[in-house]
Amino acid sequence: DTWISTQKKIHSQLSLPVYPLQENRQFGSKMTDSKYFTTTKKGEIFELKAELNSDKKEKKKEAVKKVIASMTVGKDVSALFPDVVNCMQTDNLELKKLVYLYLMNYAKSQPDMAIMAVNTFVKDCEDPNPLIRALAVRTMGCIRVDKITEYLCEPLRKCLKDEDPYVRKTAAVCVAKLHDINAQLVEDQGFLDTLKDLISDSNPMVVANAVAALSEIAESHPNSNLLDLNPQTINKLLTALNECTEWGQIFILDCLANYTPRDDRESQSICERVTPRLSHANSAVVLSAVKVLMKFMEMLPKDLDYYGTLLKKLAPPLVTLLSAEPELQYVALRNINLIVQRRPEILKHEMKVFFVKYNDPIYVKLEKLDIMIRLASQANIAQVLAELKEYATEVDVDFVRKAVRAIGRCAIKVEQSAERCVSTLLDLIQTKVNYVVQEAIVVIKDIFRKYPNKYESVIATLCENLDSLDEPEARAAMIWIVGEYAERIDNADELLESFLEGFHDESTQVQLQLLTAIVKLFLKKPTETQELVQQVLSLATQDSDNPDLRDRGYIYWRLLSTDPVAAKEVVLAEKPLISEETDLIEPTLLEELICHIGTLASVYHKPPSAFVEGSRGVQHKRLPGSAGSGESVESPDPGAAATETPPAVIPSQGDLLGDLLNLDLTPTTTTGPPPPTTSGMQMGAMDLLSGGLDSLMGDESEPLGGDIGGNPAMGAAFGAAPATMPASFNAPGSGGLDDLFDLGGGVGMPMGALNPPKAVWLPAMKAKGLEISGVFVRRAGVIQMEMTLTNKAMSVMTDFAIQFNRNSFGLAPAGPLQILTPLSPNQSIEPLNNLQVAVKNNIDVFYFSCQYPISMLFVEDGKMERQVFLATWKDIPNDNESQFQIKDCHLNSDAASNKLQSSNIFTIAKRTVEGQDMLYQSMKLTNGIWVLAELRVQAGNPNYTVSSISLKCRAPEVSQCVFQNYEAVLKN
Amino acid sequence: MIHSLFLINASGDIFLEKHWKSVVSRSVCDYFFEAQERASEPENVPPVIPTPHHYLISVLRHRIYFVAVIQSEVPPLFVIEFLHRVVDTFQDYFGVCTEAAIKDNVVVVYELLEEMLDNGFPLATESNILKELIKPPTILRTMVNTITGSTNVGEQLPTGQLSVVPWRRTGVKYTNNEAYFDVVEEIDAIIDKSGSTITAEIQGVIDACVKLTGMPDLTLSFMNPRLLDDVSFHPCVRFKRWEAERILSFIPPDGNFRLLSYHVSSQNLVAIPVYVKHNITFREGSSQGRFDLTLGPKQTMGKAVEAVLVSSQLPRGVLNANLNASQGTYTFDPVTKMLTWDVGKINPQKLPSLKGSMNLQAGASKPDENPTINIQLKIQQMAISGLKVNRLDMYGEKYKPFKGIKYMTKAGKFQVRT
C-alpha cells in the first residue's frame, strides 16, 4: 500500500480504542451538528430566542449555531434578527463570524434592524487584528442594504489603503460588491481609480483581486476602458502571474487575453512568460493560458522557430485535460473542438486520446466523436473507421446513430476511404438493427451526392430494407435514391408507388421528396409512369394543405405540360457536389470564440452577446493581426463608388423587411451534409427565376434574369450555361479555400451603353464571409442583375437562393409587377430605385440593399407615336412637369439622341427654335409608366451644349431618377 | 462569479444551499432536475445547464451533485475546479464526503464555504490555510472545546496566506522529520478483440506526505526524467529549474499534497500488464451462450498482479449465468446484468479462468452488442512507465529526515473489447 493510505489506517486504528464504542456513539450524537436538525417542534423559535439572550457565552454560541443550521436548510429564522445581532459585540471570533453569516442572509429582509450592526462594523474596521478588519469590510459589502452601503464608504476607503495586503485584497473585492449594489456611488467616491492603482500593488494577490474586481465591473460597462492595458501594466500583471494563487492566475490570464500586443516581439515575450502556466495542476489556469497563447500566436510569423515550439507545447496540456474528471473533459472537449478548427496541426497526431471508452458519460462520448471526425485524415482513417464500427454496436442509441453518421462523414471527408466506409455501412445494414439501418441509409445518400456514379451497386441492398424505414429522414433519403437512380432500378415505379399509398400520413419532407422522385422517374421512363405522375401531382396540388408541396406540384405540372424538354433540364439538372465539412463554425465567429476559450461562450459555441444575460452590449473580440480575414473587401472599388451610391446594408430587423423574413427558406442544417430535399427546394425556388417560365406567371411581369451562380443546377435553371467560372482571386492567406462564384452574364450578348463596374453590395464582414458585388444591366430586353458572389469564408457555401423585397418598380425574380403606389413616408427616405435583396445560402440569410439605374427599366418598345406623344404631353398636368439643368455636357443633338437611344430613350421629334435644338423623347418603364421628355441643346460656339430638360410623367416621383439617368448617360 | 451552491442528494433533495451574493431561489434547481430526469444514468447529467437567467454547473461526487449557480460569463472550468476543491476539503475535514457527514458538520461546512469564496471570488482554498482558519472537527477537540469554552476558529491571521510560499504555514515543528512519496500510476487502455492495443496511456501522480520542521527546501531527481514531458505541478514546484535541469525543486506544503501529476501518452510504448483470452458467444436460434475467460500476466517485470477484479456488463437479454471460477468468486446481478469476478492475485503457474454458459430469455434474439470487459488490478513496487526516483535532497534545514518512496501501478479505465 501507499504511504498515505497506511498513514490513514494507523490514524484510524489509534483513535478507535481510546473511546469505547458505546460512548463514542453517545458523543457522536451529541457532538455533531446533526442535532440542530432534529428539533422541529413548534416552540423552537421561542426556545432559541431565550438561548440567544442567555448570559452564558457557550449557550449563546450554541444557539447561534442552531440558528445557522436552520438557515442552511432553508428554514425561516429571520424573526430572531435582533437577538442574533445582539450577539455581534463579542471578542469571540467564531461567534462573530457566525453572526456575520446570519446577517448576510437576512439583512436584506430586515433593513432597519441591520442598521443596528453598522457601528460594530465601523469599529471592527479599525481593529488592530487585520483578520478582523478584513472580515468586517468583507461582510459589510455582502449586506445588500442601501443605507448600510453609505456607511461603508469611509471604512472601505481606509481598507483599500491598509498597510496589510490581506485587508487590501479583501477591500478590492468589496469594491466590486459595492458596484453591484450601487454603481453610481462607487464612481462618485472614486473607488474605481483606487482600484486601478491597486494593479500596481506590491503584493501579487492584491493585484489579482484588483484585476478580478475590475473585470467584473467592466462586464457591466463594456466601453468604460476600466482595464486600460498598456505595456507597463502588462508587465506588472505578468510578474504577479508567477506569484499569485491559481485563482488569481485565472483572472490575470483572462485579463491578458484582452490585450493586443503592439508587435510580434511583444507578443512572443508574453507567450514565453505565459507558457509555464500550461503545466499548472488547475485545468482552468491551463485553459486560460491556452486562450492567451492561441490569440497571441496569430501575431507571430509562421516561419519563426518559436512559433513551431509553441505549437508543440500546446498539445500535451490539452491531452492531459482529457484524463481529468468527465465534467472537466466535457468543457475541454468543447474548447478543443474550436482549437482543432482553427489550428488542426496542434492535435493531428493525438487521435487516439479521443477514442471513446465505453463508460464515458454520453456527453463526453458525443463530443469525442465530433473531434475524431475533425481530425480524420488519410493517415489515420483506418483506425478511425475501426473505432467507429465498434461504436456502432454499442448500447446507447444516440451514440450509435452519431457513430454511423460519422462513418458517412469520413467517407465524404477522406476520399480514399470512401469505399471502405461504404462497405462498413453495408455491414451495419446487414445487422438489421432498425435505427442503424436508417442512419446508414441517410449517410449513404450523402455519399452518392459526393461520389456520383460510383457506389450505385449497393442500391439493391438498400432497397431490401425499404419496409423497415419508419423515420422521415431515412424514408426521404431512400426515396431520393430511388428517384435519382430510377433508370437503374427496374421496379422503381413499384417502389415509389408503395410509398404513395400513405401519402397524406407522411411528413412534409417525405412528401416533397416523393413528388420530386416521381417526376424524375417520369422524365426518365415516361411511357410506363404517366399514371403515377398524374396521381402524385393531383395528390400534391389538390389534396394537400401544405403550400410548399402545392407550389412545387404546380410548378412541376406546368413545367411538364408546357415544355418537357425544359422540365428535364430543370429537374434532372446536374447537382452540385456536397462539401467535405458542413458543420464548421463560420470563420469570423470562430475567431471570436477563440478569443473566448474557456468561457461559457466556448462551451455553447455562440458569441457571448448571444446569450449571456449579465453582459450588456459585449464587445465583439477579434483575433489580432495577420489572419486571412481579407479586410480589403470593406472598401469598394473607387471606380464603382464614383457611379454608384455605396450600398447600405439593411439592419437585420428593419420593419421593411417583413416580407423578406417570411421567405420560404428551407431550414439550414448544421450537422451533416445538406439533405437532398434542400436541393429540391432550392431548385423549386430557382425555377421561379427561370426566364422560360414567365409566360406561366402572367404577361405583365418583366422577368429579371438574376445571374446568381457558380452552381450548375442553377445555370441550367436559367437556361443559359455559365460562361466562365474563373478562380480569379483569393483573399490573402485564406488557404486557397475561397470558392468563387462568378458568372458572367453570358457570352456574346450585346453590351448595353451604360455598363458601370460592379460595386460591393454586401461586404463579407457582414455576411459571414459572403461578399456580393454587382451591377444592373439591361441586355437584349432583359433586366439583368449581375452579381459576383465571392466566398471569403473557409467553408464551402451551397444552397443559394435569392429574393427581393417589395420595391417601387416591382422588380422580382419573375413575380407579378406592382403598379406604382403613392409613396409612403417610409419609402420616400429611400431612393425609388433602391432594391432590398435577400440572398440565402447554407449558412444564413443575408439582407442588403442596392440601387439600380432606372434605365434598366426602360423597355425596348418605348417609342411613342407622334400623335400620342402630343396628346399625352398635353394631357399630363403641368404640375407633373419637372425641369432640370444639365451642366458641362458638350454634345450635339444627334450624338445625344444616339446615346440615349441605346438606353431605350427614343427621340420622336426634333425642332430647332432660336438656335436651340429641342428633342422630344419618350421612354416606357417596365410597369407601363411613360415618361416624356423635352431636351434642349444649345447650339453655341464652338460646341453644342445640352442645357436643360423637362420631364413629364404621370408618376412624377420617377422624374428625379430619370433625370439622374440622363445625366449619367449623356456624360458617360 | 459563483453565485450560489446547492447540494443535492441521489434522491433529488436539496440538503444544503449557500449564497455568496443575493439569494437565488431553490426553484432554479428544477432545471437541473429536468436534466436529471432526461439522463439515463446519474453520471450522464450534462455538466453545464442553461436556464433563462442563470447557468448551472455541476459535478457529481460521492453520489452528491454539487450544483453551482452563476449569472454572468464565468469560465466553467474555474467553477468545476472550485467545486472539486470543495469536495476535497470536505473529505479532508470529515474523512468522508457524504450527506450524513455534511449534515453532521453543517456549521463547519458553512464556515468553510464562507472562507473559500468571497462574493464569488475564491479566497482560501488551500487546505493548509483553511485548517489554520477553521480547525477540523475531531471528537477530541469537540470535547475539549465543550469543556474549556474555546472555539475551533483560529484567532490569528493565517500567516501563510500572504507569504511568498502561501502553501506552507510557518513555525512547523516535528519530533520525527519524515518525507514520504508515493508514485502511483494508472494505466488506461483499450484492447481490441484480437488482443492488440488500440490505445494505452498512463496517468501518474506523485503524492507526498511531508512532515518536516521549519522551511525545508527539497529537490527530487529522476533516473529517467525524459518520460515526463506532460506534467502538471503543485504551485510549490519551481518551473524554471525543471525546464532547465529536469529536477523538481520546491518548498513543500506541510502534510499531504500532490506534488505532480503526469501523463505518458499513447505515443510512447506503454506496457500492458495483463492479457485476457476470451470467448463470449451467442448462437443464432439458441437460448444459450458461451462464456470463457482466462487472465494472464504480460509485462509486469516479475512483479505479482494483485487485487484483480473483472467486471462486464452483459447484454440485456441474458437471464443468468452458470459459470465456474478457477479461483475467487463471481457474482451476476440479473437486474443490472453486471457480471463481477473477484479474482485476487494472478498465479502465473495456474492462470485464473471463468468458464460456463449464459442463459438468454426464451425466444430472445441474439444480442447485438458485444460486452466489454473491465479490469482492475494493482501491482506493488512498480511504476509501469518505468519512472524511477533517483534521489531526494533537503536544503535549508540541519536535521536528517526519514525518506521513503513507494511505487504502485493500478488499472484505470482498462477495457477489453470482445
TrEMBL record, chain A:
GO terms for biological process: intracellular protein transport; vesicle-mediated transport. Its main location: membrane. It is found in: Endomembrane system. GO terms for molecular function: clathrin binding. Keywords: Acetylation, Membrane, Protein transport, Transport. SMART domains: Alpha_adaptinC2, ARM, B2-adapt-app_C. Residues 754-849 form the Clathrin adaptor alpha/beta/gamma-adaptin appendage Ig-like subdomain domain. Residues 654-671 have a biased composition (Low complexity). It comes from Gasterosteus aculeatus aculeatus (three-spined stickleback). It is a peripheral membrane protein. Transmembrane segments: none annotated. This is AP complex subunit beta. Belongs to the adaptor complexes large subunit family. The keyword Protein transport applies. PANTHER family: ADAPTOR COMPLEX SUBUNIT BETA FAMILY MEMBER. Residues 611-683 are annotated as: Disordered. Residues 858-971 form the Beta-adaptin appendage C-terminal subdomain domain.
Automatic annotation (TrEMBL), chain B:
Residues 176-417 form the MHD domain. PROSITE patterns: CLAT_ADAPTOR_M_1, CLAT_ADAPTOR_M_2, MHD. InterPro entries: Adaptor_comp_med_subunit, AP2_Mu_C_sf, AP_mu_sigma_su, Clathrin_mu, Clathrin_mu_CS, Longin-like_dom_sf, MHD. CDD domains: AP3_Mu_N. GO terms for biological process: intracellular protein transport; vesicle-mediated transport. It comes from the Eukaryota. It is a peripheral membrane protein. Pfam families: Adap_comp_sub, Clat_adaptor_s. Its main location: Golgi. Keywords: Cytoplasmic vesicle, Golgi apparatus, Membrane, Protein transport, Transport. Coiled coil: none annotated. It is found in: Golgi apparatus; Cytoplasmic vesicle membrane. One of its GO terms (cellular component) is Golgi apparatus. Belongs to the adaptor complexes medium subunit family. This is AP-3 complex subunit mu-2. It comes from Gasterosteus aculeatus aculeatus.
